[in-house]
Amino acid sequence: MLTTRPRPFRLTLVHPCVGRRVGMKRYIRTWKMEPLPAALIAALTPPEVERRFYDDRLEAIPYDEPTDLVAISVETYTAKRAYQIASEYRRRGVPVVMGGFHATLCPDEVMEHCETIVVGEAEDLFPEVIDDYRHGRPRKSYRASERPRLGGVEPDRSIFRGKRYLPMRLVESTRGCRFRCDFCAVQSMFDATQTRHPVDRVVAEVMRVRRPGQMIFFIDDNLTSDASGAKELMRALIPLNVRWVSQASINVAWDEEALELMERSGCQGLLVGFESLDPAGLAAMNKQFNMMRGGPREALARFRRFGIRIYGTFIFGYDNDTRESFRATVEFCQQEALYIAAFNHITPFPGTPLYQRLEDEGRKRWEAWWIDEA
Ligand code: SF4
To answer: What DSSP character marks residue 369?
Structure first.
């Protein structure tokens, strides 16, 4: 008797772009780095499931290609575009599961645009989502009750094959941050906690993904949130002879041992959030630690002594800012010769204390700016 093998379950992963400006044909251009969350979801998917991956920043999404389930990781900036993509699939009868920062911080809204929502980190939930869909018993929502232990799975970067990304190798060593900056979605998402991948796993991953001439980018929210953990990683990196960059809070400038280890382990630069040069502005942001000891100028002098280039970011628009704040900030960046400086306007991300405060004070101009048509 002839038996037919059941067709494998098909999962389509989509990484949305940030969409278009009103009236523009082309999508807004952003840095095209490998989207590690999609590779993590791929790694959490059983090998017998057929997976495809489309990066909306790089290619057209073939909505008519047959698939059984679509998974989209949603950030606030990509929410509107993610909803457009989801509606294309849903009107073709394909169910959509959504997770990521925005799904966790704004679940009620996200739930309206998908069949299933994953609230919290995916590690302990996504295998169950897939299993439930394969067995025809999907739920509307899956919620993480606690933070997962990291290190169980390594992102499956095979999904990136054939796509043209920036020549930079992304690795995660920690997730979250212990600080509670007023505007920051990271502290809301992880409740001001940080989890770490075991150092030996990070080192093994770095060894596997490194390529000649390419930098390692530790995509951690704040690599040095836990200085002792960061030092352990840096000590382990020294023999590898890699060059790396990451993001860190300014307080690490006062830790001489950490700076030495950065230099010895190949740190080329750090993104540091200076945010404001005004102590009252920093107080409003709950980021007074940026003024500790000698403040940002002294911190920059210390980074320079160890050859660490600084990509400084600033926020304008808190209540104390005036026209003078712009000039003073730009002058500061020029005088200090920052490697890169980025100036952002105040952005109330949902779930943050800033967002709540503006809401309480009746100062929000849009209910949800991330999906507003204007
Ligand atoms: S230090 Fe950075 S990552 Fe941590 S809460 Fe503040 S802005 Fe967010």
So the answer is: G
